[in-house]
Specification:
Largest sheet: 4 strands, antiparallel
Strand order of the largest sheet: 2-1-4-3
Order of helices and strands: EEEEH
Number of strands: 4
Helix content: 10-25%
Number of helices: 1
Mean pLDDT: 85
Distance between the termini: 46 Å
Radius of gyration: 30 Å
Length: 93
């Protein structure tokens, strides 16, 4: 849903909520029922949160400026097998 702004010559501005792309050129004013023309305004944009902005920036930068790897990452140690033979029959993770 989108918010569209209309201006009545006698009553002033008011907003109408409609599905995107369904705005009419004129709407009846809610106060005087006279014709009100649509006013084109900037879209209502919300500010992105800081963590999301950092993640989006890192994602965008990685396409053009990938990080250079200088070392091989350390190998993960495998868990030692249990010494109790009864534990061998348990499900593995």
């Amino acid at each position: 849903m989108a918010t569209y702004q209309y201006r009545c010559a006698g009553c002033g501005s008011f907003d109408v909520i409609r599905p995107i792309g369904r705005a009419l050129a004129e709407e009846p004013c809610g106060s005087c029922t006279g014709p009100a023309r649509r006013v084109f305004t900037a879209p209502m944009l919300a500010r992105t949160s800081a963590p999301l902005a950092r993640a989006l920036h890192a994602q965008e930068a990685s396409a053009h400026e990938p990080r250079v790897v200088t070392d091989v990452p350390p190998a993960r140690r495998r868990p030692t097998p249990p010494t109790d033979p009864r534990q061998a029959g348990l499900p593995k993770r």
